[in-house]
Design brief:
By secondary structure, the protein is of the alpha/beta class. The chain is built from 14 helices and twelve strands.
Amino acid sequence: MQHIPLSKFSGIGPWIALACLLGGSLGCAPAPVDQPSRLNVLLITADDLGLQLSSYGDPVIETPNLDALGSSAVLFEVAYVAQASCSPSRSAMFTGLYVHSNGQFGLTNASDFSLHPHLHDATMPNILKRAGYRTGLIGKLHVDPVDRFLWDVRSQVNARDVAGMASAAEEFMGGGPEDPFFLMVNYTDPHAYRERDPQTNEVISDWTFLDQYEGIPAALVEPSEKTILPFQGIDAPEQRKRVAGYYNEVLRVDAGVGLLLESLERLGRADDTLVILTGDHGPPFDRGKTTVYEAGLRVPFLVRWPGVSKPARSQAMVSTVDILPTILDATGVPAAVEMQGMSLRPVLENAEAAWREYLVGEFHMHGAPWFPRRAIRDGRFKLIHNLLAPTASPSIRIDGDLGYLASRDESYAGTPIRQAFDTFANPPEFELYDLEADPWEFRDLSGDPEHAEALQRLQAALEEWRRETADPLLDPAFVEEMRQRVDAY
């Protein structure tokens, strides 16, 4: 699949995207393929999985199965989701488009947003099914409209039952040797959960984490001085407990991935299956999920493409909008659809190949409120643009986390931790961080004259990206219209 080199951000020209947007579904319909590649595709995601893996340097737990996959694949050190919220993030994976271009601005169960109509037949499973692939889904979909996705099999197995998921996956992967398969496996872990009444389905508990399910993991992480998240720095008994619970759910993902890859090997399909693994965004803790901080946008990203990838750790800055272009390239399935990502083939073949100069992420909403943001980084500096600041503020609590509340304790007065949480709750229009010196963004440098050049350079680059991708939020009237729409829910 050919991409037309354009700029430091993307692999397609704006005229292609514009033609698709104006032409609707007819102009962007996936092209049929008579003889698709026999390469299968296994796409694995885990809810809320950040960089809490030993292969990414986490010191708390060992994740041997994920590490083993990483050692046989290209492990990307710096990978962003398009938006650190479940439905919008997954919409970008399915379409190869940033959220502001595909329309899934918020959660499917907390808004009426969905993919734009002209994209309903331009999603990953639909393109591949028309090319002769069997399509399967295990776990959540969480992108609307649900009934427009073309799945041959959609498993109802509990997505915390990692053994059951592996069994369902093996049945699907081994069930049609005459056709190549596309299977998406989505683990619910390490997402927090709330207990519901089995009769009424009403929520009867606050958010917590499920340490074990069906005996997995066998050995639990206990709260300790180690269970403190570096992007929070909050040390409180209840927060130690919550973080330990999160780690236990990560361990369950690791066990599940091990079982899943064993199934792939047992079927003899490891050598003819493209495997991609990522999280849909970072951990469900304040300053992580639903933000554009590194802890929200950055995820593990592993790609094993038989015959193409060479095991390596790559510094190329990649995005989940690159998943669909990569899959279409690997399968040899042409599709005349708009995409803002690009195939990862060059950096899979050579980890040192030239790639993006800038990496971009965004946010619009999870549930209410509407608080759009844009973020852009290079190898060192990171700029955040809070489009409605200082006239509006974001939500300050995600999935019952206690981080912000704990930061109000007197013990944090005058510390970088208090300052970071103050900025989190009431951000200025622009934030600037030196990721080399301050990887978890505790010190905003936007007002520092010594960093004025970096600020202006990234502001210009962000403006260029927004114009190239036809960001509708460049129009203040659209921003206000969306705010009123969300407020009316």
